[in-house]
Amino acid sequence: MSELLHVPQHKLPAPGSRSIVREAGLCLALFHVDGKLYAIDDSCPHGGGSLVMGMLEGLQVRCAARPMD
């Protein structure tokens, strides 16, 4: 499900970086990749770990707590 959420300018990540935003009862991981912003729930569905600290490969993020394959 998508939803429009206002994120203050100072909370937006710089190009190539990431940030975490807590707004409207949500905790979102924001990624600035190739000039576009992407937002996902910061909680990994497998282990509940934070995704903002995970490994980013293209447009896929791997939970930092999940071992590499």
TrEMBL record:
InterPro entries given in the database record: Rieske_2Fe-2S (IPR017941), Rieske_2Fe-2S_sf (IPR036922)
Keyword terms of this UniProt record: 2Fe-2S, Iron, Iron-sulfur, Metal-binding
Name listed for the protein in its UniProt record: Rieske (2Fe-2S) protein
Record Pfam families: Rieske
Rieske domain location: 4-63
Highest rank taxon of the organism: Bacteria
